[in-house]
Specification:
Blueprint lengths: L1 H18 L3 E2 L1 H4 L1 E8 L9 H18 L5 E5 L3 E7 L4 H9 L4 E9 L17 E4 L5 E4 L4 E2 L3 E9 L5 E8 L2 H13 L11 E5 L2 E4 L17 E4 L5 H13 L6 E9 L1 H54 L3 E2 L1 H31 L5 H33 L2 H33 L2 H4 L12 H9 L7 H21 L3 E2 L1 H4 L1 E8 L5 H10 L6 E5 L3 E6 L4 H12 L4 E9 L1 H29 L2 H25 L2 E2 L1 H31 L5 H33 L2 H35 L1
Parallel strand pairs: 1-15, 16-21
Antiparallel strand pairs: 2-4, 2-14, 3-4, 5-7, 5-8, 5-11, 6-7, 9-10, 10-13, 11-12, 14-20, 17-19, 17-20, 18-19
Amino acid sequence: MRGLLALAVVALSLYAALTVPVHLGLDLRGGTQIVLETRPTATADADGEATERTMEVLRGRIDALGVAEPTLARSGDNRIVVELPGVQDPTEAANVLGRTAQLTFHHVLGAATGAGDTAQPLPKRPAQQVLPDESGQLLRLAADPLTGKDVKEAAARFDQQGGAGWHVTVDFKGHGRDGWARLTGQAACHPAGDVSRRVAIVLDNKIISSPQVDPSVSCGSGISGGSTQISGSFTPREAKELALLINGGALPVPVETVEQRTVGPTLGTQAISASAWAAIAGTTLTALFIMAVYRFMGALAAVALACYGLISYAALATIGATLTLPGLAGFVLAIGMAVDANVLVFERAREEYAARQRPSPRSSLTAGFRGAFSAIADSNITTLIAAGLLFFLASGPVRGFGVTLGIGVLASMFSALVVTRALAEHAASRPWLRRRPRLTGIAHTGIVRDRLTRMNPHLMRRPRWWLAASAAVLALAASGIAVRGLEFGVEFTGGRLIEYTTATAVDPDRARTALADAGFPRAVVQTSGDNQLTVRTDQLSNKQAAAVTEAVNTLSKADKLRDETIGPSLGKELRHGALIALAVALGAQLLYLAARFRWLFGTTAVAALAHDVVILIGIFAWLGKPVDGVFLAALLTVIGYSVNDSVVVFDRMRDLSRRDRTSPFAAIANRALLQTLPRTVNTGMGAAFILTALVVLGGDSLTDFALALLIGLAVGTYSSMFTATPLAIELHKRV
């Protein structure tokens, strides 16, 4: 039955992988993402209904932009996420999307010549207002205007014969036809050339055109037919944009751009290529390693790993998930999770084989799968908790990482518990393999276990020494946070980040000087391999960003790879969200471990996790690495990944305590540590191959992410053995 289930799932996954494409995020295919936030006004609240109406208007504007495969999604009650693939200059798109397009038509009452006449915005209730026309002359406008709701259609036209050039024709509908006739009829009552014979067309509190009513129009009758023409020396783009805004309708509430990201197609292509090479290299090294350690069973596990990759990819494609750059790394990282499950089973099978009087590979494997199931389930559930928190509390690419990691964990469990088991038990029952038990890889205990058996060290003889060493490392890391401080990324501080690739290497000090001379003395400049330069500043306008690019071009020809803008309110919100995610992650792990084991183990595991978190953050502080959303993804993954080792040790301690109720707790803890150490070493080696490949081959986009995970792997492996275990011993003495 397992074999049939595995075959069916693999076959369906292969079909899905060949027929359903995976949707790539903008960080992989290039384009622009704009996050808009609706703002309340005196007459309209920025509630869910207003956001829905705003989305409908924006959808029409996006369609008019002509962008291929745009996406528009709601985020929360008052945010809208717009993705525009292939758009590399987001300025025009942001302007078109963000403008409220409040179009009104007014009769001009006369010029504003009084000393108290100053430009005033359109009031919330009808009243006289004063606005400058195209030439800067202040005009007094009548109340009760026509609005954009009275417009049927607007179109950009080019009048080559009449000499009007580019203009916009507007057709009114319903009451708008009569209203237009009444408005122009009032203006026609004034003599030709009088300023009061003009009609002002106002868009977003700005007079865009104020034409004179033709002398042929008589007083009181106005222009019938419900059509008019807006002229104002438009360029083709200006005429088309105005027609687009009028047709798109007015936004029910104002919107503000709180986040804007632009990724060049080159960066996305490089990231895909680098991640692919890292996945190939890491998977190959991991497969060779487990085959060297577990021989034929290791080879079957490598086949199961390939099935894992296929199942994960097909699942992502089937549910329509967006594969982002961190998600791609999560896809590779979950390979390590799949290796962990196989190592747990094979090490348990080795113990069963050595303990039996008449062992057989198949019976030992069956007992190994049964004995390792609880540890596999617990360790994967803790990682799923971290993935779930990323999905619910994070946003953007980091949220995509949570989705990919969660799918990867589920696929890894299936590949280990179903695919590997079906293949391994079928192979172990073959006569040719039964006659050669050492070929299976489970008929011997392995190098690590053999040496531990001969040495039989009592690692937990002095648990306080280990705790003192952990405290010293913790203090050193915490001092980095206190002395160097944290280099928060633009996501948490707000501001603008622009990344360039330069023709030649640029000295960062020269870049800082050039930017200071250009008026940006507080710009933070960082360089990395492959002639890449990153500039991080406070909030910048598009004009100021162009000045930054110009300053960089004076040093070397530069092409923009990435451009991100985060509003200050969103940065503060993301920073608070990161702290909440971290606190919830630790609390969730505590509750789960306390429920599965007992409060003693739950408390020590969470204390070890906090130890790992502080050390990882402290190392990044000493290295001057940015603490951003991608680092948060790595940190939460380390929490889930690190607790796996503690869970495995605690699971063995619980098992030994049930069978041996007379030995001291410290002795049981020491035996559990020694018995699970081979699994810890082999799993750590498999994951290290994957993460090292990401650090070396993953490119600049993934280097810091993979480095954080690699540090977390090392610290977590140490803390599960020499922080959590000795702390559990010390706490047990006081219980």
